[in-house]
Amino acid sequence: MSSRIQNILLVFILLIFSCESHKENKDEINQVSNSKTIKVYLLGTFHFAQTDSTYNVLDSIHQKSIEKLSNIIASGKPNKVFLERQPEFEFQNKMNSLYSKYRQMDRPLKVKNEIFQVGFRVARQLNHDSVYLCDHPGRYGYLNNIAYEYAENNNQKDIIEGKRIGTVERQEDIIDEDSLMQSVSLLDYIRWINSDKVKNASHASYISNWPLMGSTDYYNYEDDNTLLGAEVITDWYRRNILIYTKMINQVDYENDDAIFLIMGADHIPIIENLFNANPYFEVVPTSEWLAKKSQ
Fold it and tell me: Per DSSP, which regions of 169-241 are E strands?
């Protein structure tokens, strides 16, 4: 139990420290480091393959929207395009081999995946020789199931639904998200996903809701059901810190001017916070650069 508590406290200390101190100290650190800053473009997305039969990203109307999105991203001229794939499994995924073949294709790629539809497309537009992988595995699914099962069996469903005082309701649970997807362009839907309102509510739901799940009998040494929800977000933070680590270790600090990441939307607030705390990087607010019109 004590090691679990130490791990959770470590993550929260990191979060609090980075949120409170990086803004006021970053300029001073930049002067000490005497180095240029690398621009960071972060794009949160839905997973293109995980939509029902009524929403096909390969339809011409969505392909036009994806083309506009790719043009906007390419206008930032990132030197590297980072994708949500694990570099450790490159021997299985062969992403760069696939990308090399894609560069030679003269027809649209019929794969419902944002990695190919957006990531590959942007990299080819910029004539990049390769793409970069940065994902890392986590235990979110396993830990999530344990916490959910406890919550459902112990009168904590209102926490899951964001209905209890102290919890936060996500924006996609407030509105009819399916109707929104069908009523606006794919580009505008992604703009909505990356709006501050949606991102802040998403991140707040992790920080506010999950720690309330589980037993509160902290004084009972034999109770293994305490901190169940906190274990979920501890693992979630850990995964995103490792994603960030893989990214900065593939950056060319002397020659790169900008980098781009496309990843599931819930990852972005944590990764953005980490880059904001690093004096060698400058996060360009997604809501600003994504609002530009396609050339």
Answer: none
| Structure token pair of residue 285 | 């607010």
Coil, strand or helix: which one is 112?
coil
Closest CA to 269 of 201, 193, 189, 203: 203
Sheet containing 258-264: which strands, arranged edge to edge?
A: 132-133, 80-83, 258-264, 38-45, 281-283
pLDDT, tens digit, 9 for 90 and up, residues 251-283 = 999 999 999 999 999 999 999 999 999 999 999
Pairing of strands 132-133, 38-45: unpaired
CA nearest neighbour of 93 among 122, 116, 70: 116
Which tokens in the block code for residue 63? 């392909």
Q: How far apart are CA 235 and CA 224, in angstroms?
A: 17
Residues 213-238: tens digit of each pLDDT: 999 999 998 999 999 999 999 999 99
The CATH class for the domain spanning 2-139+185-198+224-289 reads alpha beta
Taking alpha carbons only, the member of 204, 186, 152 closest to residue 63 is 186
Q: How far apart are CA 135 and CA 246, in angstroms?
A: 8
Give CA–CA dist 189/271, Å, rounded. Answer: 21
Any idea where the domains of the chain sit in the sequence?
2-139+185-198+224-289
